[in-house]
Design brief:
It is a single chain. This protein is mostly helical. The protein has one domain. Helices cover 68% and strands 3% of the residues. The protein has a three-stranded antiparallel sheet with strand order 1-2-3. A hairpin with a 2-residue loop joins strand 1 and strand 2. Helix 3 packs parallel to helix 14 (348-365). It is globular, with a radius of gyration of 22 Å.
């Protein structure tokens, strides 16, 4: 009996030490906020019931992954293999994927469909973390920016061709954020900005479809086409504004419940939440996301090596990019791109991806060495911070 108790205690200590419970709790609260927002409280609750299952599956994956030793991911052959596999999966999606809302972004695996661009974001995090962890001291050499940019461009272009403009922007944001973290020079940053401007002009002239141009034009002036391309953006702004200070109460959002706001459970869940919870609810939401980003960055500073540190920073960039683009398009500051809100929007692909990234990060966190970090502040990526 005594031996069993000791084993139980050691297991409990081992388990609790692997997980950042503040980070996990904040993530779970956001999942709960999403579930409440998409729950109809009457009749069929298809989205609520399905999402509840996805939350459960994601949490189980999170805890399972937190027990793994992910130091093997530092091996170059594994990273390259994952990258090649990602390219093949995206090519398969372009050729044989399912079309949903005009985008050929999904693969049907039987009981559910997978949006392939979501898990590939984790591969990009690992690839960029691996690349810059060895070369951050040489980041002034433009070839490292160019090579990492080529890797990123291959994935971003394949995603864009689906077409999934939102996910392509997220992937490019990951690369830009990681180069910042690696300590890019101001000269190279200016060059990247100029390249981005010329690329945007080329995309507008030769690549963008008419409906994508309509979205951007409507973004600049939503009132020009309220019954067409500007309808979603306008209804989203109405929903956010009608929430006022205290909101209309849970289940009282007229824009979403009466279906004036399309896709309120996915692309416009922030607007639906803001309508029901008001300004105070939005502030609470911002605080929860702030806690998640803070805990990720805090834990990443104690990474066992620059690879773990950069991977953690990459996760923070991933979540911030999703949040910024989603909220921006919900309040009329950015074009509508179909970007999900982390932990809140309906869908299993993005939710499993988010908890998978955090689970891998927790596995890395267990092997962190705070003493090492104090001894190697001069190598800290991009900034000199002492814990």
């Amino acid at each position: 009996m005594g031996d069993s108790l000791q084993i139980f205690k050691r297991t409990a200590i081992h388990f609790t030490g692997r997980v950042d419970w503040v980070l996990f709790s904040a993530s779970l609260l956001l999942c709960a906020a999403g579930l409440v927002t998409m729950n109809s409280f009457s009749g069929e609750n298809y989205f609520f019931e399905r999402q509840l299952i996805w939350v459960g599956v994601s949490v189980v994956i999170f805890f399972i992954l937190s027990f793994f030793d992910f130091r093997f991911l530092k091996k170059t052959n594994i990273i390259i293999s994952l990258f090649i596999l990602s390219v093949l999966v995206l090519l398969f999606t372009l050729l044989f994927g399912d079309v949903f809302l005009g985008a050929q972004s999904w693969i049907d695996v039987g009981v559910f469909s997978v949006q392939t661009s979501d898990p590939i974001k984790i591969v990009m995090l690992l690839l960029l973390a691996k690349y810059f962890s060895r070369r951050h001291v040489e980041i002034a050499n433009y070839k490292h920016i160019l090579i990492s940019g080529v890797y990123t461009a291959i994935i971003a272009i394949l995603v864009f061709l689906q077409p999934d403009f939102g996910s392509a922007i997220i992937i490019l944001s990951l690369w830009l954020g990681m180069t910042f973290a690696a300590g890019i020079s101001q000269k190279h940053l200016l060059i990247i900005i100029l390249i981005g401007i010329f690329t945007a002009g080329g995309l507008w002239t030769f690549v963008f479809e008419d409906y994508q141009k309509d979205r951007i034009i409507t973004f600049l002036n939503p009132l020009t086409d309220l019954q067409g391309a500007g309808y979603n953006a306008y209804q989203s702004q109405v929903a956010v504004g009608s929430g006022e200070l205290m909101g209309k109460g849970i289940g009282g959002g007229t824009q979403s419940r009466l279906e004036f706001l399309p896709e309120y459970e996915t692309d416009f869940i922030f607007a639906a939440f803001a309508e029901e919870w008001g300004f105070f609810g939005v502030v609470l939401l911002l605080m929860l996301y702030g806690v998640i980003i803070w805990r990720i960055l805090r834990d990443s500073l104690y990474g066992a090596s620059n690879f773990e540190t950069l991977f953690g920073i990459g996760i923070a960039i991933l979540f911030m990019s999703h949040f910024t683009i989603h909220v921006g398009m919900n309040i009329g500051l950015l074009p509508v791109t179909g970007t999900t809100l982390p932990f809140m929007s309906y869908g299993g692909s993005h939710l499993i991806t988010e908890f998978t990234a955090l689970g891998i990060f927790m596995g890395m966190r267990y092997y962190a060495h705070p003493i090492r970090r104090a001894d190697t502040d001069h190598e800290l990526i991009g900034v000199d911070i002492k814990p």
